[in-house]
Design goal:
With 56 residues, the chain is mainly beta. The protein has one domain (1-51). Helices cover 9% and strands 14% of the residues. It contains 1 helix and 2 strands; from the N terminus they run ββα. Strands 1-2 form a two-stranded antiparallel sheet. A hairpin with an 8-residue loop joins strand 1 and strand 2. The radius of gyration is 10 Å and the shape is globular.
Length: 56
C-alpha cells in the first residue's frame, strides 16, 4: 500500500509517495500539482518523516 511522503532531495522536499507503486494515484490525487515532487530518481523519505523547515 502506498502512503504520502516527502521527497528526500535537499532541493525539493515536495510531496511524493512511498510504497509499492500500485496506489500512487490515490495518494497523490489530493496534492496540488505545484506541491508534487517530480524528481528522478524517485527518492522518498519514510512515511511520517518531515524534512526540517517544511510546514505540514
Amino acid at each position: 500500500m502506498c502512503k504520502p511522503a516527502y521527497c528526500a532531495n535537499e532541493n525539493c522536499h515536495k510531496r511524493t509517495w512511498w510504497g509499492c507503486g500500485n496506489h500512487i494515484d490515490s495518494v497523490m490525487s489530493s496534492v496540488p500539482e505545484a506541491d508534487q515532487c517530480h524528481c528522478e530518481p524517485h527518492n522518498p523519505l519514510p512515511p511520517g518523516v518531515v524534512p526540517e523547515g517544511v510546514k505540514k
